[in-house]
Design brief:
Elements lengths: L1 E7 L1 H16 L3 E8 L7 E2 L2 E4 L11 E5 L2 H13 L7 E3 L10 H10 L2 E4 L3 H8 L15 H9 L1 H5 L3 E9 L4 E8 L2 E4 L6 H12 L7 E7 L2 H9 L5 E5 L8 E3 L8 H9 L11 H5 L10
Parallel strand pairs: 1-2, 1-5, 2-4, 5-6, 7-11, 11-12, 12-13
Antiparallel strand pairs: 3-4, 8-9, 9-10
Helix pairs in contact: 4-9
């Protein structure tokens, strides 16, 4: 059981409270108190003592769980760093609303530092939804499936290659150019970066975080031949998404939808801000458990 302090805004406390109580009843957390971003004249809220900011540095707490808007959350992170605490001790309370959430499993995912290697945005959305650091450089970029399958089968070699500027392309939706880079013989479209220098800085920073002992490869599959190559590829842990029902293990079938393209459908599974039925338990999936599927 972990000692946690709840930190947020009074008007949001009631919204989040029941989610925290569930984990308390499961003996996953012990709530030692509540700290509000505004002045509070009360000594207790429910049964919990009210803390002030001066008491934070001496609080006997394992994790601080926040319930606050993004702009306040950023300020909370700055305070945590001033105290020289690890960023991982601050947890966004939004994760408690994930389907089938369990705090003990969540901590195991965070501690596992899983590196998600993907050819589209699924990894970035997943890390964001779980309030985790990016343990992968394959964020805010995309590559075609042929290149990705080559990357899967010789990942360590590709990670030894330098990232080299190739050219710029125009993105009609973004209405601007973005850098394209070469990694060995594969092409990376760094479409969420303004220039190559920015992309290279982010790439090197996140490349140094790769956990080679816990790699998860995730791919959107469009054709039967890709599914076969994916199924026969060397990585131990891999997940594919397809809108066709292929008879291969670890390929999740998502029936086609008329209201969006398939890549949007895949990303919506990982984006906690999009209201949709999530086909898998993301915590079990990232822990490589066999029973991660919710829909069968």
């Amino acid at each position: 059981m972990k000692n946690v302090l709840l930190w947020g805004m009074s008007e949001l406390y009631d919204k989040y409270r029941n989610q925290f109580i569930k984990e308390e009843l499961k003996n996953n957390i012990n709530i030692i108190g509540v700290m509000l971003t505004e002045d509070c004249i009360y000594e207790r809220i429910d049964k919990y003592p009210v803390y002030n900011i001066e008491q934070l540095s001496t609080a006997q707490v394992d994790y601080i769980i926040t319930f606050a808007p993004d702009e306040i959350y950023s300020d909370m992170r700055k305070i945590i760093r001033l105290l020289k605490w690890d960023d991982d001790r601050l947890i966004n309370g939004n994760v408690f609303f994930l389907p089938q959430f369990d705090f003990s499993l969540y901590l195991r995912v965070k501690e596992s530092k899983v590196s998600i290697i993907t050819n589209q945005c699924w990894g970035g959305y997943t890390y964001h939804s779980l309030d985790m650091k990016f343990y992968s450089p394959f964020i805010n970029l995309f590559m075609n499936n042929e290149d990705y399958l080559k990357l899967m089968n010789d990942f360590n070699w590709y990670m030894e290659q330098p990232l080299v500027y190739l050219k710029e392309l125009y993105e009609i939706n973004l209405k601007r150019n973005y850098p394209v880079a070469q990694l060995g013989d594969i092409t990376l479209h760094m479409n969420h970066y303004l220039n190559f220098e920015e992309a290279l800085t982010a790439w090197n920073k996140r490349k140094n975080r790769i956990n080679y002992n816990n790699l998860l490869f995730v791919m959107r599959i469009d054709e039967l031949q890709e599914a076969k190559v994916f199924a026969e590829s060397s990585p131990k842990y891999k997940i594919g998404f397809s809108n066709k029902p292929y008879p291969f293990e670890n390929i999740i079938y998502l029936p086609p939808r008329d209201d969006c393209e398939f890549y949007v459908q895949v990303n919506s599974c990982a984006d906690s801000n999009i209201l949709s039925l999530k086909p898998y338990n993301v915590l079990k999936l990232l822990l490589h458990k066999k029973d991660y599927m919710r829909l069968n």
